[in-house]
């Protein structure tokens, strides 16, 4: 048996102060100390910190990543293994998470940057991150740096800040503790005879620059489909390097708090036996797709699974992986539910996915990403509106004279998440 | 007060059954008839039925243009805020009439309309993407439930309120995807759906995959010069005068015509019955849709063995997939019995 | 089995960066026209090797597209046909704004497209 205790340290507010600390549920941030951590990377010229609280008239854009600070208090390894901490298997022992807050990295990476988090108004309903106290890190690159050099710089800066803040909780007493227990294959079968054997198959974005995901620091496109203990992801075993398709990319926060993992654990030992977490990728090369989906299906069979939930990340290319995985896993007799989102056009009349198969007969949708929304002018912008006209789902008229913004919800971070993180759906 | 005009057939107006299906349209101003009473109750004080229009099902479908014109003129004069037809349950001709008249009221008069029927009613297949159609039980025992769903939707339409997703406002999915917030998040819904799927309990997919009727191709013909080739079309080519009265849309049957000795389809001898495309070019030279001339030439030059002496034709314009399938299953047997090796199927 | 390939592209940076090492077919045309060109190849019997909707940057947003197909004609591949048809259909769902960006943004689009197609090369080379 493997056991992870996840302690919640509730953060009800963030304030800047002379010393970084957590006191009575308030996170005090020493601005200079955090800046110094960001600027450790010589590829970053400057950075600004800001705080955005739920309900404030604040817009954060363009968002790169959202990260929940965590700290490993007991057990092997550290948070973000292979990325910030040394490579070591995580997912056991005790971890504390700073709940109710996130580190948001923002600022230009490329000129078609996207990702909006509104803290109030109609846009706030579409992003799960409007409910959090956000410490926003807006980075600025050194002159002349190439996009592929700069993206990892901002990615790592966010993780360093999150780990620094997580450390502040090490000696605290959690407000609440969740316990997750997993079992070996034989052990689980003996413990829960008669319960259906279920796994979570997660497809990771892995198409190249700005479209990558890292597992224990390894670029997911160079991996074969494999098995993890479902608690590993809670210690940051999977991180995002993905900055395109704001609505349906999985920020690191979504990996740490993966909804399918959480909700399968809720049923674990009651109505099902949550056997494991299977990860696979979404490569560009079609033979890679074939190999990866062959492997997920094979793993499902080897593990004698009865059912799986399959989640997706991104638009277009991954639709093909989704359908291939679903078809092959169903063909192994393993019942499959898929989670996706839709691009049905602004009028909702186009075919939603770029692939289809009758085997996909149980679909959860995160909604139509082409839906148009008008976002009101907000008092403060953290980041810049320079790119609003060019973001996916925007156009040259997006930023109107009265300061309102007309965009498709695909521009909003997390709006149509394909791991089922949000409440949006469509019929 | 919202004004409603209600359309029902002779049966629900309690005039009579099949023997009265031929009665022409009647207009009963100020009268609430049949299921109208249930609508009246459901509307409370928000809306009133200002007129009930009754029409025999046979009459409507056999005198389509005339019935439509009469009813449209009445509805125009009455100028309601919303038009309601049915519910038609599983009555096929009634369902088609409800869909047809609702569609016409919306298109011609710009008045919103709602109908209700059983999902397998052919009218549903034909009109659910054009007219908000509430799914009902397959018989009048489902009337209460049908009205409970149709009435609020009609009021919403009358008030020009935004219509929610099909599962929220109780209409059949109509090809337009509408976003809304669920009570449970997606991951939880996925786990619940999986538990149902594992237990063989019913569940409803949130996105039905587009349905494709995949047909495995037949092996290639080895020697075309010995093959008998038949022509089949959904482009509505018929002998001049359309002797079997194939409908210009929503065809109820197909035609079988002998072309022994016919070398060329001419303006004098053939035409199209199809109402869904500009017929000028097909009427001028029906070979453009059904290439008899070219195949005769191939026959003469020995490219093909021979052209089959019969062709099969129907109109694809809005014809229900189920009907089309039934037609082809029937004439495919005839083609096989006649020793046809291959078919060229033309559409428009 | 790995396959000899060519890259059909409208991205000048792909041409510039990869043409010395690989067979690049550069065409000055739109994103959708690249898809149509590749569709024609597929119908002639070339095999589709990379996904035509690679990348989350949407059609009609980025003007650039690079797709890998087999160097030699083989037999008609139904799955390639299916994928390319879906991809072409997808284009119409997105508002066209490929021509609305500041000049420096095009370089970013080119780089991302290059990196996407480059990510396939290790899988494709002998």
UniProtKB/TrEMBL annotation, chain A:
Organism domain of life: Bacteria
Active site: 243
Keywords assigned by UniProt, alphabetized: Pyruvate, Schiff base
Modified residues (Pyruvic acid (Cys)): 243
Matches recorded under InterPro entries: Gly/sarc/bet_Rdtase_B_asu/bsu (IPR016585), Gly_reductase_pB_sua/b (IPR015417)
Residues in the signal sequence: none
Gene Ontology MF terms in the entry: oxidoreductase activity, acting on X-H and Y-H to form an X-Y bond, with a disulfide as acceptor
Record-given protein name: Beta-aspartyl-peptidase
Organism from which the protein derives: Faecalimonas umbilicata
Automatic annotation (TrEMBL), chain B:
Keywords: Oxidoreductase, Selenocysteine
InterPro entries from the UniProt entry: Various_sel_PB (IPR010187)
Example of a GO MF term: oxidoreductase activity, acting on X-H and Y-H to form an X-Y bond, with a disulfide as acceptor
Pfam families: GRDB (PF07355)
NCBIfam families: various_sel_PB
Record protein name field: Glycine reductase
Species the sequence originates in: Faecalimonas umbilicata
Lineage: Bacteria, Bacillati, Bacillota, Clostridia, Lachnospirales
UniProtKB/TrEMBL annotation, chain C:
Organism: Faecalimonas umbilicata
InterPro entries on file: GrdX-like
Gene: grdX_2
Top-level taxon in the UniProt lineage: Bacteria
Designated name of the protein: Glycine reductase complex protein
